[in-house]
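Input structure tokens:
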């Protein structure tokens, strides 16, 4: 690693304690990604099965896993189903509450229904902005959600606080 990368890494660690807690939209993190783009693959991964497990653990959807792992798509999909590999929700919105809590959600309407016990007559975005919530659309995978943030998959009726990489609540069968 060169000194520029090391300086960026030290800045991230001083802000968040660890690069693991760094949000993917942080300018310093984005600068590191320009130098070292993410390929979605790790040199230590030697088999397609290992790749599938790792990508699922990091929060990639089934279709993304099928696209990232080399092999016959049907076999990859069948392996995920047969091994009952838990797939995490890929969130579409990052919401910052006026009090500073950060929420990752798939649907703004579901978030409002859960948090306010109400469905607005205006657009969900207008409703949240009127209450001083900041909303940013994007693709937010599990591996980029920081500890202490909340996530709300579509199958839960209350947000859950992330307290580690293995703290995901899966949908029950």
């Amino acid at each position: 690693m060169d000194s520029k990368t090391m300086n960026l890494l030290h800045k991230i660690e001083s802000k968040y304690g660890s690069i693991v807690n760094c949000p993917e939209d942080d300018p310093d993190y984005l600068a590191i990604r320009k130098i070292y783009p993410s390929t979605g693959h790790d040199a230590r991964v030697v088999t397609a099965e290992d790749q599938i497990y790792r990508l699922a653990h990091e929060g990639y959807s089934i279709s993304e896993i099928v696209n990232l792992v080399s092999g016959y798509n049907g076999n990859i999909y069948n392996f995920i189903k047969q091994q009952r590999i838990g797939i995490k929700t890929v969130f579409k919105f990052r919401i910052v509450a006026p009090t500073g809590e950060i929420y990752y959600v798939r649907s703004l309407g579901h978030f409002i229904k859960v948090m306010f016990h109400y469905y607005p007559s205006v657009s969900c975005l207008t409703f949240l902005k009127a209450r001083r919530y900041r909303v940013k659309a994007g693709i937010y995978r599990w591996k980029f959600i920081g500890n202490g943030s909340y996530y709300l998959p579509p199958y839960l009726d209350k947000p859950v606080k992330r307290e580690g990489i293995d703290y995901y609540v899966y949908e029950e069968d």
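The CA atoms of residues 19 and 66 lie 27 Å apart. Strands lie at 91-96, 102-105, 134-140, 150-152, 160-161.
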